[in-house]
Write a sequence for this structure.
């Protein structure tokens, strides 16, 4: 049976959509991962041919697919628009769901082959999806592959540390409220527990506000070995009253103590993920003064490292 052309290249699907209230549309794409699976990203850029520096955006755990990606693009993209207006291409990305402590239990991904196909020692993890997305974006003609940055919030911030520890293809990272308990090999206290229904660790109520408490519970030799290989500048952002503020601060402290190029700033805000203001019920964005300052700080950081 002969193939019927739809005008779309199945191996390079791109669907353009407008973004509410913005002159910058989004190109929705599916990007192939290291194992042949596909994940969605939403690419936006200034007018013109470029090449532009690129900033990748991540937040929280993976999953959600194209539906969640489109929701982020339409309702959490004020920060992106600020970067686009400053001359950056930006891309929201999704990735596969976090696998509880697989990074810590199994170690680095090893690739081999069998019967002329791929063979891995484990399945790829979410931070490795982010690396694959980075490598794909560098092939796009309007992207300057030597000037790529990354912003990750919460688990996305921990992903930044994992990526930087073993990948040198990103030039600057913002880790905002990085929930990096796995990267630090933190031993939780009684505020976290194993869910008897699943056998998985439940950290939703974990209280780690004080850096001293966190420092006493991490596996310091492991954390330092992972940080030792990092050669990329970091901007670590905390949130003053967050229940994991101690983890955020210790993540920065270890970078600083290891002599890495790292800066720290904490902000007084009551919303987790505050650097991604959400669209209001009136259809517009109303970022407050703290959110504006945090994004201004992010932009200044990327200007130093991606435009210098």
């Amino acid at each position: 049976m002969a193939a019927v052309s739809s005008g779309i290249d199945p191996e390079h699907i791109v669907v353009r959509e407008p973004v509410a209230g913005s002159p910058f549309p989004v190109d929705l794409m599916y990007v192939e991962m290291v194992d042949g699976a596909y994940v969605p990203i939403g690419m936006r850029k200034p007018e013109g041919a470029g090449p532009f520096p690129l900033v990748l955006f991540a937040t929280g755990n993976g999953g959600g697919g194209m539906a969640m990606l489109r929701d982020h693009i339409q309702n959490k993209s004020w920060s992106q628009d600020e970067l686009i207006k400053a001359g950056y291409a930006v891309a929201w990305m999704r990735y596969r769901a976090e696998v509880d402590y697989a990074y810590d239990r199994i170690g680095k991904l090893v690739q081999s082959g069998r019967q002329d196909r791929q063979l891995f020692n484990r399945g790829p993890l979410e931070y490795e999806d982010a690396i694959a997305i980075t490598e794909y974006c560098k092939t796009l003609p309007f992207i300057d592959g030597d000037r790529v940055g990354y912003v990750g919030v919460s688990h996305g911030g921990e992903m930044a540390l994992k990526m930087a520890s073993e990948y040198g293809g990103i030039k600057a990272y913002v880790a905002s409220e990085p929930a990096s308990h796995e990267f630090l090999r933190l031993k939780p206290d009684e505020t976290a527990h194993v869910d008897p229904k699943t056998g998985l660790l439940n950290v939703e109520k974990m209280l780690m506000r004080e850096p001293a408490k966190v420092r006493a519970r991490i596996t310091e030799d492991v954390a330092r070995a992972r940080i030792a290989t990092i050669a990329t500048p970091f901007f670590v952002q905390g949130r003053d009253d967050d229940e994991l503020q101690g983890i955020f601060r210790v993540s920065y402290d270890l970078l600083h103590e290891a002599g890495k190029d790292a800066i720290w700033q904490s902000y007084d805000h009551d919303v987790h993920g505050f650097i991604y203001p959400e669209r209001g019920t009136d259809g517009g964005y109303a970022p407050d003064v703290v959110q504006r300052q945090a994004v201004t700080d992010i932009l200044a950081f990327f200007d130093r490292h991606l435009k210098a």
The chain has a mean pLDDT of 92. The chain has one domain: 14-306. Residues 289-306 form the longest helix (18 residues). The chain has nine helices and 13 strands.
